[in-house]
């Protein structure tokens, strides 16, 4: 009887192994691909979202361990957990090769914690510069003096000393900014961290953006504000035109 039970447990273990290995293999590929294109930390929450979209991890399943537990128990050198001691909710997954860079990123994040940007106070054009998707071979440039705007180009020739590149490591391409209140906590924090790092590395004072924002609105906001109250809510503006207007302060 004992031999039969042992055989059954062994059989069950063999049946579960392929699924577990498949998950770890998928995790390893996703994490490695992230750090091949981006040196910023891959947050555990974002990794979970990616897995759920690919139907590789259930969003709710009380019978299963957490994703962090699965990663830690795998003991894979290319699936490492790195935490921010000052912010327990900030958990990243990294490879052994990228671990040092991720730890440095988290250290810098802690140092700039007191200067976390106020997304609601930044001009729309500034926020869009960090989230717009540039065409292949082109760079996003942000004008840091009024009127604030961004340009997507190979280079800036005119007034170039007022334009600063927003490199890929500082950006969140495709992040939707329709309503800032709808951003997830991880997306908001990641965008704030990237903007803070960009301003620090380029010696730009974010207060300059805030002070102007208090006095002025972008072209789209000024257009809507100029309309009679009964008409403002009925105006339909094509998306491409609205985007152009929102890019200019």
Q: How many domains, as an integer?
A: 2
User: Which sequence of strands runs across the widest sheet?
Assistant: 1-3-2
Query: What's the shape?
Result: globular
Percent of residues in beta strands: 5-15%
Q: Mean pLDDT score, rounded?
A: 78
Number of helices: 10
Query: Main β-sheet, in a few words?
Result: 3 strands, antiparallel
Query: What is the element string, with H for helices and E for strands?
Result: HEHHEEHHEEEHHHHH
Low-confidence runs: 1-18
Structural class estimated from helices and strands: mainly alpha
Q: Would you mind describing this structure in some detail?
A:
- It is a single chain.
- The chain is mostly helical.
- It has two domains: 2-111, no CATH class; 119-246, no CATH class.
- The chain is built from ten helices and six strands; from the N terminus they run αβααββααβββααααα.
- It has helices at residues 2-37, 44-53, 67-74, 99-111, 124-129, 185-201, 207-215, 219-225, 229-232, 239-246; strands spanning 42-43, 80-84, 87-94, 139-143, 150-153, 163-165.
- The strands form two sheets. It has a three-stranded antiparallel β-sheet with strand order 1-3-2.
- A hairpin with a 2-residue loop joins β2 and β3 (87-94).
- The protein is globular, with a radius of gyration of 23 Å.
- The protein starts with a helix and ends with a helix.
């Amino acid at each position: 009887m004992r031999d039969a039970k042992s055989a059954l447990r062994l059989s069950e273990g063999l049946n579960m192994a392929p699924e577990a290995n498949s998950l770890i293999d998928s995790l390893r590929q996703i994490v490695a691909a992230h750090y091949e294109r981006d040196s910023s930390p891959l947050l555990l929450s974002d990794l979970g979202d990616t897995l759920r979209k690919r139907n590789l991890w259930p969003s709710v399943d009380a019978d299963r361990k957490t994703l962090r537990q699965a990663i830690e128990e795998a003991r894979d050198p290319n699936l490492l957990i790195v935490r921010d001691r000052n912010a327990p909710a900030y958990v990243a997954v990294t490879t052994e090769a990228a671990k040092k860079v991720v730890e440095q990123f988290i250290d810098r994040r802690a140092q700039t914690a007191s200067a976390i940007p106020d997304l609601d106070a930044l001009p729309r054009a500034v926020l869009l510069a960090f989230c717009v998707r540039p065409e292949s071979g082109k760079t996003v440039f942000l004008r840091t003096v009024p009127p604030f705007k961004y340009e997507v180009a190979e280079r800036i020739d005119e007034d170039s000393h007022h334009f600063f590149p927003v490199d890929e490591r500082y950006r969140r391409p495709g992040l939707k900014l329709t309503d800032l209140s709808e951003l997830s906590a991880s997306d908001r924090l990641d965008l704030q961290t990237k903007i803070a790092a960009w301003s620090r590395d380029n010696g730009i004072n974010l207060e300059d953006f805030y002070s102007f924002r208090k006095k002025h609105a972008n072209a789209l906001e000024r257009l809507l504000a100029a309309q009679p109250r009964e008409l403002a809510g009925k105006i339909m503006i094509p998306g491409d035109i609205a985007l152009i207007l929102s890019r200019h302060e």
